[in-house]
Task: inverse folding
């Protein structure tokens, strides 16, 4: 009888140890691999393929518009988001492209407008030959960046209208509007507030290479 009791007791002990796993034979828990963090990619702006478009309104009747060349810059993306970048604009290359308001006479030619825009009444190009837009962040289709004109920097938001990234490069356009008075682009004229709109529209058409 004692032998039987001893056998049963041993069997029960083995069963309990097996059920508890003994702390030795359990399978190792599988670890879930974490997704790799997106890395930032920097593209170099192609100055010859990029351009800045501008437009200003006069008296709500007509306006001037034109182009300015891009000097240099970079675009930084992380995944499908623009996370940084700088576009440097060559203010010495202002070109009007509208033609309705020009005539072949002194003071009415396109070259006269360029000369006027380059003076202290507007962009004071001799002292400040470049302007820039430094991108700080993107949320949805909105870019937040610092616009610098005439050495004055203000935060200005832009609307991203297109954006495409690939292994070879970046292509994108963004529109912004800035108040010229914020940057001391103040036309010295007795009717300036009645003639020239404070809002100047700018469109950045940027191509960049990896």
Result:
């Amino acid at each position: 009888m004692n032998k039987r009791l001893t056998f049963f007791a041993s069997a029960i002990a083995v069963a309990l140890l097996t059920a508890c796993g003994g702390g030795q034979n359990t399978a190792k828990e599988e670890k879930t691999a974490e997704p790799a963090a997106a890395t930032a990619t920097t593209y170099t702006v192609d100055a010859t393929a990029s351009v800045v478009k501008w437009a200003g309104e006069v008296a709500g009747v007509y306006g001037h518009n034109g182009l300015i060349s891009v000097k240099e810059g970079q675009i930084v993306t992380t995944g499908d988001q623009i996370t940084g970048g700088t576009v440097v604009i060559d203010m010495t290359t202002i070109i009007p492209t509208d033609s309705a308001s020009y005539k072949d006479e002194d003071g009415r030619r396109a070259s006269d407008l360029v000369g006027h825009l380059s003076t202290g009444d507007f962009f004071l190009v001799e002292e400040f030959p470049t302007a820039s837009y430094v991108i700080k962040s993107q949320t949805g289709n909105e870019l937040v960046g610092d616009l610098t004109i005439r050495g004055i920097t203000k935060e200005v938001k832009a609307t991203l209208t297109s954006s495409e990234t690939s292994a070879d490069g970046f292509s994108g356009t963004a529109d912004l509007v800035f108040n010229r008075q914020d940057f001391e682009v103040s036309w010295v004229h007795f009717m300036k507030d009645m003639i020239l709109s404070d809002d100047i529209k700018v469109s950045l058409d940027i191509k960049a290479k990896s």
In short: The CA atoms of residues 32 and 57 lie 59 Å apart. Helices lie at 2-20, 110-117, 192-195. Residues 2-20 form the longest helix (19 residues).
